[in-house]
Amino acid sequence: MKKSLHLFLAGVLAVGSAGLAFADSPTGGERLAGRVRHELAMIPQVTVFDNLGYRVDGGTVTLYGQVRNAVVKDEAQNSIKHLEGVERVNNQIEVLPPSFSDDRIRRQMARAIYKDSSMFNYAIQPVAPIRIIVKNGHVDLEGVVRTERDKDVAFIRANEVPGVFSVQNNLQVELPKKG
């Protein structure tokens, strides 16, 4: 009798533990999103001047953003279409038009933002957290910065670059504003 009670309690404990482990584990969609994020981050041709985003809806992965090179657009699609759980890839990535003027703005913009002494921590990261998207002289700043101050500094430095028609600051702030 004692032995069967111990077996019964061990079985209940095992089932309960398995339920907790399942509850703490990411859902299939979250796992797929993590794998998509990883695959996109591993594309070697992606630079600070490219912006890749994605959305996972069931088995459909929608890619969006802007890239300077059509190879990156194709590589993004090819890197995720083989993942388990991906049934369809909707590639909406925009290939930016080639432009010597935009290339000059990109270089000057990167120097202006990343050479600022207060932005040094962003400059040394392996994957640039601030993406600089330039299209026909118009600039979008994308990515994540730690503070509202860093967001403002990037915006001010971007506006100092000559030849820029407009700057749209889409940077997200990681830390909340102190009240």
Task: Explain what you see.
The structure is a single chain. With 179 residues, the chain is an alpha/beta fold. It folds into two domains: 28-95, Fe-S cluster assembly (FSCA) (GMP Synthetase, Chain A, domain 3, 2-Layer Sandwich); 100-173, Histidine-containing Protein, Chain: A (2-Layer Sandwich). The protein has six helices and eight strands; from the N terminus they run ααββαββααββαββ. The chain has helices at residues 2-24, 28-41, 70-80, 100-114, 120-123, 148-159; strands at 51-57, 60-67, 88-91, 94-95, 130-135, 138-145, 166-169, 172-173. The strands form two sheets. Strands 1, 2, 3 and 4 form a four-stranded mixed sheet that branches. Strands 5, 6, 7 and 8 form a four-stranded mixed sheet that branches. β2, α3 (70-80) and β3 (88-91) form a beta-alpha-beta unit. The relative contact order is 0.11.
- Which descriptor suits the 3D outline? globular
Q: Give the uncertain stretches in residue-range form.
A: 4-25
Q: How many structural domains are formed by the residues? A: 2
Taken in chain order, the helices and strands follow as HHEEHEEHHEEHEE
Quantity of strands, as a count: 8
So, CATH architecture of the largest domain? 2-Layer Sandwich
Strand content: 15-25%
Fraction of residues in H or I helices: 40-55%
Ends apart, CA distance between termini: 63 Å
Mean pLDDT: 86
Which structural category do the helix and sheet elements fall into? alpha/beta
Tally of helical runs: 6
Major sheet characteristics: 4 strands, mixed
Q: From the alpha-carbon coordinates, what is the Rg to the nearest angstrom?
A: 23 Å
Using the coordinates shown, work out and report the CATH topology of the largest domain. Answer: Histidine-containing Protein, Chain: A
What is the CATH first-level class name of the largest domain?
Answer: Alpha Beta
